[in-house]
Design goal:
The complex is a heterodimer.
Chain A lengths: L1 H20 L3 E7 L1 H5 L2 H13 L1 E7 L2 H9 L5 E4 L2 H9 L7 E12 L13 H11 L3 E3 L5 H12 L9 E3 L4 H10 L3 E5 H7 L6 E4 L6 E8 L10 H12 L1 H9 L1 E2 L2 E2 L6
Parallel strand pairs in A: 1-2, 1-3, 5-6, 5-7
Antiparallel strand pairs in A: 3-9, 4-7, 4-8, 4-9, 10-11
Chain B lengths: L1 H15 L3 H34 L5 H12 L3 H12 L14 H26 L3 H8 L4 H11 L1 H17 L2 H7 L9 H10 L3 H27 L1
Helix pairs in contact in B: 1-11, 2-5, 2-8, 3-5, 4-5, 4-9, 5-8, 5-9, 6-7, 8-11, 10-11
Classes of the chains: A alpha/beta, B mainly alpha.
Keywords (chain B): Membrane, Transmembrane, Transmembrane helix, Transport
Membrane topology (chain B): Multi-pass membrane protein
InterPro entries (chain B): ABC_perm_TupB-like, MetI-like, MetI-like_sf
Chain lengths: 267, 228
Amino acid sequence: MKRFRILLAAVLASLLFCGVATAAEHLRLATTTSTENSGLLAVLLPPFEKANDCKVDVIAVGTGKAIKLGETGDVDVILVHARAREEKFVAEGYGVNRRDVMYNDFVILGPAEDPAGIKGLADGAEALKKIAAAQATFVSRGDDSGTHTKEKSLWKKVDITPEGQWYLEAGRGMGEVITMATERRGYTLADRGTFIAYKSKTDLQVLTEGDKALFNPYGVIPVNPKKHPHVKIDLAEAFVAYLTGAEGQSIIANYRKNGEPLFFLYK
Amino acid sequence: MGFLFESFQHAISLILSFDREVFDTVWTSLYTSTVAILLAAAVGVPFGTFLGLGRFPGKRAALTLLNTLMALPTVVVGLVLFGLFSRQGPLGSWGFLFTPMAMIAGQMVLATPIVANYTVAAVAGADPRIMTTALTLGASRLRAMRQLLVETRFGIVAAIVAGFGRVIAEVGVAMMLGGNIRGYTRTMTTAIALETSKGEFAFGLALGIVLLAVALVVNLFLNLLQQR
């Protein structure tokens, strides 16, 4: 019994020590799976953490959930991509001082054999229409994310309610959906950043791109401290300043995967 | 087959190179699970002992309820505690959500019924003469109970091992309440889920192997305790 007690005391002491050791300030950032899965945050955050002596806790979820976490005050700042919803978030008083950070674009991915014949089409909505007409497999995020929001707006444009055996609502992140579409030889809408990051893991190709409607801007918004007094607004503002400032912007512009830039800056 | 084999090789080299990220997630897993199981044992063992020894109306119902709680889906626990810990919830001001504390709370809720249930089985199956003998020898009731727990330590340790196995392997609570934050609340299971979602099969597999190894070491250690 004695040996057990000594052991127990040692375990408890080491646990206590660890609790004390992690006392740095934490900034909670809710963001989309695309910024996390693309690997950008892994290079973007450390300089900020070092300069401000803090830890950025990244909660990577869909844009819809990220905005929700901001509304409930469970995070301090959000970095998302669904312009209309971001503006609503600010208008309703949940966020302050929204700033543009970067952009890339959405692309429609599909198998090389292209059963719906959308290759080379520039109009995203037109491409979806053809996919629906051909009843070709389409994997949707189905998770209320920024990409899903964009997809729904495209369907709306051509007045189609996608349903049926061919339309799969995955309810998962961007990377998982690309993997699913690869396995099922189907189409999907993806942000270019995640696609480039996944290029070596999928044989899907970019079939439709370049449409204005496929523009994908990212914005950063601190949560309104008037609504949630516990929000670390100073640190959140510092984070916004870093992302939109010279250092953050140059890291974003220089971030490449497989030799290709993933995100672009506003000039 | 080549794909699987290569992933396996990569996994082994990751472990041998003592990857910092692997180490962090292993540590978070061990840390939260250990604290959670200690708390669960502190609640579950006395409760189970009481339930196993006591004779009172409604005992059957209590046992049935406990059995049901053993099958609590982790996502349900995650969901309910998310509601409690969110800033809009009743305990929101604690700021627990997306911290290891929230994960520990969730894992404790999962493990307590398991520990209690196995404890019930252990004390109910013990020689009924232990208590009476101790009492006639002049021990206090508390002392007699302690003697009983010493005699049934195999069962009690098994209860704790079962609870530990459940919490270290679960992913729902860790994901929903911890938020899978790198270097902070990322555990082995949430990391495996993430790496698979990113298509990083090898890294996921590496963590899976580590998870199994940890389970093995914990069980070897507890075996040692039981043999005393």
